Amino acid sequence: MGKLRIFMMTIGFLFLFALFSPTVHADDSNTYEVGTDSLHIRSGPSYDSAIIGTLVDGDRVTVFEEQYGWAQTYYGGQKAWVAGYYLIPAENTETSAEVAGSSMNTTKLIKAASDASGKLENYHIVLDAGHGGRDAGAIANNSVLEKNITLNTAISVAKELSEAGADVTLTRSDDTFIQLEDRVRISQTNETDAFISLHYNAFPLNGVNGFSTYYYADGEEQQFADDIQSALEQYLDLNSRGTRQNDYHVLRENSDLSILVELGFMTNPYDLSIIQTKEHRENVADGIVEGIMEYFNK
């Protein structure tokens, strides 16, 4: 009899828990719209997880959780995940899947300024602020994080490009972790004229210093890197290390015109004193804008 009483009490507890446990309803949460041609629904928050379904452009979802850029929804009565970078806010309507949480738009489009000079009108530039979120990048003096400097630099460059007439997409506009493949996808899902990844360097020997520009493919990308590096040389009070070829993922896997710029060594005391300043960020912006104009105006 005692065992039966315990069993009945357990069943009753589970019933009450199911009845009164908090739930999230679509009308209490944010609705998003798929902003790409097709978006795979996966069993877990990674590209290695199994594909269990597909959404198409215009489908609507409601987010229950975000994890490193992935949005958790429900599909077929089970937890499922989609890449949050392809979701855009939408008004609450009927949903094809359930997805509640913070905004998934880590990317940001900055339109050309209304009073822009027009020198880069009709050009679309993607700026990639290196690292972010759980990936701090290089760390100097146990407190200066590369991810913060790259983001501040990207924002300064974006402002200058906008004033020159260009439309600009930031792969991240806050302290968010974005996988390398998603940085490339952001470039390739836009009509991108140039992709520029911004970084700051580090080396075990603190005497190593300077800035450099990397490209993957010979030809146009090498020329673009040369133009950017030459322009930066006119603005930065740092040692120029020239242009170099490298197979960085965001360059190798990107079919768009793309380069990666290392804008100084965080492990060098002099470089570090320069790269933390507003003046440096503005000089980087001036140099990159001039280099882009030099390349496209040939």
From TrEMBL:
Query: Can you supply one Gene Ontology CC term for this chain's record?
Result: outer membrane-bounded periplasmic space
**What UniProt keywords apply to this chain's record, in alphabetical order?**
Cell wall biogenesis/degradation, Hydrolase, Signal
Signal sequence region? 1-26
Per the record, the domain of life is Bacteria
Please state every residue range assigned to the domain named SH3b: 29-91
Gene Ontology terms for molecular function: N-acetylmuramoyl-L-alanine amidase activity
Q: Which GO terms describe its biological process?
A: cell wall organization; peptidoglycan catabolic process
Q: What is this protein called?
A: N-acetylmuramoyl-L-alanine amidase
Organism (species)? Lentibacillus cibarius
- Taxonomic lineage: Bacteria, Bacillati, Bacillota, Bacilli, Bacillales
